[in-house]
Amino acid sequence: MRSFIRSLLLAALFPALSGAVPDALSIVFPTLSRSDDGVNEPSDTQHIGGELLFFTCRISNYSKSPEQKIHLSYSVQVYDPKGTALLELYKNEIAEEVAPQDKEWLPKISTQLELPPALLSGTYKVTVNAEDLISHAKAALDVPFKVQGHGIRVTPALSVQNMRYYRSEDDTVPMERPVYKAGDALWVRFDVTGYKYGDKNSVNLSYVFSVLGADGSAIWTAPQPIVEQSESVYPKPYVSGAFSIQVQSAVKPGEYAIGVKATDVTGKQTVDAKQPFTVQ
User: Fold this and answer.
1) What pTM, to 2 d.p., does this model score?
2) What's the gap between Cα 215 and its chain centre?
3) pLDDT at position 101
4) 64 and 134 in contact (C-beta within 8 Å)?
5) What is the mean pLDDT of residues 90-107?
6) 30-82 pLDDT per residue, tens
7) What CATH topology corresponds to 159-279?
8) Contact indicator for 275, 258 with CB cutoff of 8 Å
9) CB 210, CB 222: distance < 8 Å
């Protein structure tokens, strides 16, 4: 009996001898919101490319120095479904003195995440890594979220997709029947994928536009190509383009088409595409 009581006292005074393990460094209370200090979005929320998201979380079970100070480092990154990073890695440190009355205080990580405009649908994730620079303990947390991306089929070779007509530059819904008359502004938008990347995920594309007659021959060709050149942290899965002309009064009623010859300068690829429209 005395031996049993002595064991209990030792366990109470020296928890390490009893096999007790201190709580591990943890990342807790993650919040992903569309507004600063907003509530956490439901797990089925569909985000879109170009959105600005606000992310916060807390760090618990950190260590303190004999001077009652804490020192933590952390990083935040966003990944697509294939594990490719979307943004520049965000890194920072927290160094504070924690008073005895603040023992329940949890250090806060807070940052803004601006999603790239061109994203495909899927489950993305925010990954947080933290290290306690006093105890050298580490912790990590993945926070998944959904993205409703652009409707596009990624292809291994250069491809022009989704050629659609619009009434104006600001229209968001394409015309069901692209019918124009003399004097109308004609807007066509399209997406390009299957190009090759250069250094720093650079894209180098050019487009030559033509108005095609009913027999497919060009009756007018733009004198200069439109050039698309860009670099980005995240390799764009597609590039969107647009072109506009005014339907001239000399154009006779009938069936026409806008043709585009897209060239991938980096990948040395060229592809032609066309989309019909009607002039009344």
Assistant:
1) 0.85
2) 42
3) 85
4) yes
5) 93
6) 999 999 988 999 989 999 999 999 999 999 999 999 999 999 999 999 999 99
7) Immunoglobulin-like (2.60.40)
8) yes
9) yes
Q: What count of Cα atoms within 13 Å lies in the side-chain half-sphere of residue 207?
A: 24
- The architecture that CATH gives domain 20-147 is Sandwich (2.60)
Domain extents in the chain: 20-147, 159-279
Q: Are 266 and 202 in contact (CB under 8 A)?
A: yes
Dist. CA 56–CA 52, nearest whole Å? 13
Look at strands 179-180 and 269-279 and give their pairing: parallel
Asked if 189 contacts 161 with a C-beta cutoff of 8 angstroms, the reply is: no
